[in-house]
Amino acid sequence: MTPTGTGGPVGTPTPTRHPHPYPHPQSRWVPRRQLGAYLAAGLLLTMFGRLIVTWIAFGFGFVDTSVGEFLQAVLFDRSIVVEQELLAEHQWALTVALLVVGLLALLGRRVARGGALLLAFLMAAIALRELVGLATDERFRDWYVGSNGLAGQIIGTWVMALLIAVGVLVLMLRAGDRPAPGAPAAARGPGAARYTVVGVLLIVLCLAEVGWIIRTLADGVDAGDYFLGLVDASVDTYGNQIAGSWAFFGFAYAVALLVTGLLALLRRPVVRGAALTLAGTLLYFQLRFVVNTTFAESLFDDAQWPHPTWSMQTDHLEGWLRILTMVGGAVLAAVVIALVLGAPERDRAGTEAVVPPGAMPRWPAPPAQPAPGTGPTPPSALLTAPPNLPPPPAAPPR
């Protein structure tokens, strides 16, 4: 008979339950041994995201755009011309991604690792591009920092971005799960086929980005200037922009989609965070395009930069291709998000926890085995025999 509130029969102590420091490999939460790296990376990512927000807020003192117009442009209205001090849509999406992925890392979610690696590579590329432009071209440097008296703050911001990117890369690369000896590094089991579908869809989105890059080069843009502008911000291809031009981001997204797609085909669970970050960012751009095209005539009558309507887009082949890229891309991005959210982290035997001496064993703990020649203790013995009795005295010698 077991009284209410106890964990076993009469005479047995109630077991104490402790949170396991090495969760199941399928868990969405990081193990305790990796939590410090995630917390540090999350702190760095959110810190730089808040720094970008601070620069945008500071820029309102030098522009004519109101806060309402800025929020309208950020959310859905591409027809509003926003000054360069307030950045542009790619930088806004990057800021939101930094804050969201950083928050997930602070919460200790495994999915944050892939997104943090992707954002760290992107931050490093942007920072190096801006620093190269500032160091090599005096005219660009005068335009960038010559008249505002903020040269030290701006250069310091990009140096900080580069250091943060390197720090996040080191933390997240070392925080990966180590495969157990003989265990596959790829995800296995139910739902693992989702990675293959996600990889195919990401490569399709990559091909669409590559197609528009080829279209840009065929439009009379010098190929040398285009590729030099990817690493040097002072090269003026389509007008200078702060923190990366649209040509730079288009090429960066194409590379990121290709790498993430190939890793997804290999069923590497690290792509979950990267795929969610990429698909969410592209979905934001594509939905803004759909909203502007749909309401271009009625909602934006006084638009500073009129957006083409659906009828104007369908007048020529390039417009049809743009519609196919944006609308079809939005559908594919939504499918990628839905598939990745349900994809498994790793196979049950896919990771090996490094257990310090004296710590709890890795999950799941193996069941205790009885000594050779003995069987399990019957339940009746627990009720009849008092616990911790001294051994009986030895028989006297004859």
What general form does the structure show?
globular
Mean pLDDT equals 78
Distance between the termini: 44 Å
- How helical, in percent, are the residues? 55-70%
* Major β-sheet profile: none
| Strand tally | 0
SSE string, helix = H, strand = E?
Answer: HHHHHHHHHHHHH
> Gyration radius, to the nearest Å?
29 Å
Judged by helices, strands and strand pairing, the structural class is mainly alpha
Please tally the helical runs, counting DSSP H or I stretches of 4 or more residues: 13
Low-confidence stretches: 1-26, 347-365, 379-385
State the gist of this model.
With 398 residues, this protein is mainly alpha-helical.
Draw up the topology in text.
Blueprint: H1 32-59, H2 67-75, H3 89-106, H4 112-136, H5 138-146, H6 151-174, H7 193-218, H8 223-229, H9 246-265, H10 271-294, H11 310-313, H12 317-341, H13 379-384
Helix pairs in contact: 1-3, 1-6, 3-4, 3-10, 4-5, 4-6, 4-10, 7-9, 7-12, 9-10, 10-12
